[in-house]
Amino acid sequence: PVTREAVAALLCRGPNRHAARAPVAVEVEALRRGIVGGELELHYQPKVRVEDRTLAGVEALVRWRRADGRLVPPDAFIPVAERHGLIDALTAEVLRLGLAQAARWRGGGLAVPVAINLSMDNLRDPAVVGRIVEAVAAAGLEPDALVLEITESRLAQELTLVKEILARLRLAGFALAIDDFGTGFSSLKQLQDLPFTELKIDRAFVAGAAEDASRQAILEASASIGARLGLTVVAEGVEDAEDWGAVAAAGCHLVQGWHVARPMPAAEFERWAGLRGPDGG
Ligand code: C2E
Ligand code: MG
Ligand code: MG
Ligand code: MG
Questions:
Q1: pTM of the complete model
Q2: Quick check: keyword Phosphoprotein in the entry (predicted)?
């Protein structure tokens, strides 16, 4: 249950000398109401193939549309949802929205897999597997319509359980991506132990790689390991033509980033995808 104390703990008390850099304070109760009250919306960012720039998939990224019209970015409220027991509800809502969108797109002839981000906290309860399977079936979709991206922002306490749940998700037919690879706790060990199908190289090693020898070295080594392990290698944060050149040279399969497109509301994404036409024209 969400307590008044928990809410108060999030509020900024007195002058905060770090105010300029502090994340937006989010009230837990408002977030809870926002999740159940339909205030979450998804923006969509394409993943395109390096070889021919055709659309290979799309990542759904959550935003919170507050009553006053402000659009709150996920980094400002996902950690709050994780800390206050709201992350399962949030993920369920994101799944519901993303799968409904995927089904509409499929109906309209746009059959690309939609990627959803899972928090490590979602993988503490084995019931998550059944819930995702049911949500996909309820949307009239096959498991290959969904990619599950997992970021490990801190060391998981119950790695054996997480490992088992990921194995069951993989067995159910979902693609599994290790997100932000190379940062946090997304490590080589995880790559070896967990049944991932996709490796997303963090933008820290992508943006500016052409002008930075150490970034380029990590980019190339990560792409090489991913390909050797048979994973689809995605470069995140490709911001310009130089970045594109660096990730192409490193052997990445897919590209995501501002150079291709920013995350967009569904209607805008449809225009973007439609404008490119069925043969990329
Ligand atoms: P992520 O999954 O690694 O998503 C990629 C982030 O990089 C997105 O930020 C995207 O807007 C941003 N990005 C894409 N291309 C570029 C680029 O070329 N340059 C730069 N500088 N940034 C780029 P966003 O949308 O703010 O999301 C931040 C993080 O929040 C995500 O990182 C993900 O970890 C988390 N997140 C987003 N949606 C969800 C969700 O539904 N559930 C959970 N648990 N986490 C989510
Ligand atoms: Mg992601
Ligand atoms: Mg990422
Ligand atoms: Mg991230």
A1: 0.90
A2: yes
